[in-house]
Structure prediction request, 314 residues.
Amino acid sequence: MRVAVTGAGGRLGQALVAALEDAPFTGPLGPIAWDLPDHDLDDPASPERLVRRDRPDVVLHTAAWTDVDGCAGDPALALRRNGAAVGELAEACVRTGADLVYVSTNEVFDGRRTDGRGYGPADEPRPINPYGASKRAGEVAAREAFLRHSGVVATEAGTAPAGPQLAIVRTAWLFGPPGNDFPAKILAAADRARAAGEPLRVVGDEIGSPTYAPDLAEAIVELLAAGVPAGIHHVVNGGTVSRAGWARAVLAAARSDVVVEEVPLATWVRPSAAPAWAVLEPTPLPGEPLRRWEAAMSDYVPLLLRGRAAGARR
Prediction:
């Protein structure tokens, strides 16, 4: 199976390339890594050019503009990069008979759920910020492309019984190498708080499903091995936690004594409104369910601390 990965230099892209290199179905040449400048979300012609050049059997689309505040500052550009660009890639895939796995986000939901349940694939998306709206536009554009050109039956709950397959993988609160993620930012913020002799203020009423990029990558590889099951898949590590609870776990693992002070989400004025309930209900996977986020964190923290120490030495 020839597998191409867009955004191959990003957090999930790197994890996918690594996981695919160990997968038996990619053959001796391994995955095809697409990234800038060849794959450019601002260039409508790049998907068709790359698909026709490399002839993948399946494309894993992880490339996106993930700066949520940047998206709020330029919603039109967000729709270009996270919406129209997905439709162009989907069109190119359908025309060449390639399957597409599109990685989306919990932020297609408004986060106002109060029943304690995670959002499932059948729940109606209602994004409350331009980033979520642009990712939702990408989902719709991909589905419409597959419907229009392949005749595949693809619905919100959807299946695609014939022809190229479209799978939408939604995830949440992604963390992992190469850093600059929530745990890394918490450690940096804790250093600043300690220097100032202050507690670290972290939001206590934003709840989500932290997801370790290497775990998500392995789950997507399992989906490929099972034949790219069409439809919407919610793939997150087990368990939920607030931002403040996650911060405490990071600091405890790093043996930091900085005190965490919980503050409401409304404390931070940002261009982009964050969904307060960012929890996804995991859907069944071909393999085992993903482990709990705490177990994934225990694997990640040593990598995080080594990277932090190396940065301090430079």
Remarks:
- The radius of gyration is 19 Å.
